[in-house]
């Protein structure tokens, strides 16, 4: 490739690339559950723009191309909800997802006072669950997504980073 992937805070100009990347990346999740109405596939561009403006959003870039993204926001109880982590299929398995998570966790802790992190993964999403466990998340319960997909809820305390990440 010749270029390295960089991680940075998303800007307003990144919203459209994030929107397209998210649509591409979550196709495999939709296929896994036979449900193409999952939130990342039905989210609007305006909604992505609003999240970029209000939330803690990071992107991975290869040159000018956005090849990964993650979002997070802090709730009233000090928990940070992290979601919509995605990495372009051609670049998965190279640590980009872990780097995006680390960037979001650091910013949510340092800039927004997060004391713990919470995320959800579909119960059949073994690759995602493996990544989350590798970087220190532990299953704490289950829920059902608005789209009906059974989810596993994972958490970890702020400041705890797995040595393998």
Commentary on this structure:
- The longest helix is centred in the middle third of the chain and has 17 residues, at about 95-110.
- Strand 6 and strand 7 (about 150-155) form a beta hairpin.
- About 35% of the residues are buried.
- The two termini are about 25 Å apart.
- The protein is globular, with a radius of gyration of 15 Å.
- The protein has helices spanning about 15-25, 25-35, 40, 45-55, 95-110, 125-135, and strands at about 5-10, 55-60, 65-75, 80-85, 115-120, 140-145, 150-155.
- Strands 1-2-3-4-5-7-6 form a 7-stranded mixed sheet, sandwiched between helices.
- The model has no long low-confidence stretch (mean pLDDT about 90).
- It is α+β, with helices and mostly antiparallel strands.
Relevant terms:
7-stranded mixed beta sheet; alpha+beta; 35% helix; 7 strands; 165 residues
Major sheet: arrangement of strands? 1-2-3-4-5-7-6
Tell me the span between the first and last alpha carbons. 23 Å
Q: What kind of sheet is the major sheet?
A: 7 strands, mixed
Rg (C-alpha, Å): 15 Å
String of helices and strands: EHHHHEEEHEHEE
Portion of residues within helices: 25-40%
Tally of helical segments: 6
The poorly predicted ranges are: none
- General shape: globular
